[in-house]
Amino acid sequence: MQWACVLLPQLAMDGVLRRLEAPADAAIALVEGPPQRRVLHAVTPAARALGLRPGLPLAAAQALSTQFRTIELDPDAVERSRLLLAAWAYRFSSQVSIDLPHAVLLEVGHSLRLFGPWPRLEARLREELHELGFRHRIVAAPNPHAARILANVHDGYAFDEHTLPNVPGKSIKGVLVEYGPGGYSPGHTHPRTAFIYATVLEGAIRSQVNDGPVTTYNAGQSFSEMPGDRHGVSANASQTQPAKLLAVFVVDTNEKELATPFAH
What we know:
CATH architecture of the largest domain: Sandwich
Largest sheet: 6 strands, antiparallel
Number of helices: 7
Radius of gyration: 21 Å
Strand content: 25-35%
């Protein structure tokens, strides 16, 4: 299977701009929070040029400039935009998900028979998203979680599980690791050919690589392992909540065992 991730980094603002039919150079800030702690959620490029940025308190923003318009963030409107894009994605695939944050994922492996090779389908997705008014990044990978992680750092990449472009003999493989409350993996090593980039998707993960410190990584944070590293601790940091991480391997194609427990 091959999954495309359409990352929508400015979904809330794009929905507002579509609704207002605002010009591209409009200085607009979306605001959220209780009356005593109003903060900026998103800003247009024109507002950013005034010194505004997401997370800035509204009072501080108004001290910097009064030449911008504020609009209340509407979570219901954001959800309507997500559902609109999911409905749009079903035109290209029978398998569509909006479960992962800020993204629409669609299985495209079977769609290529109808829409042609991936570069052609990707170009069509981009053209229609541009017409709809949604800024985006698009990647493709063998599973939805791998595609979602790749979209954080790349735009326009497409991998399958068996080959890595321009690196003969290497593959990229995504492994989803899920821990229940208090769950953990025994100490282990990975293939000596493997470079690993892991991102916490949910909850918090305690990790120790080689003789380094035991570090807690929260959702959205990442860590890496180099070829030959020893992964002594990999565990859910919570005794009450689940945790999930995605490990993306760059590894020799002929490697089958991706983890080997320490010998005792």
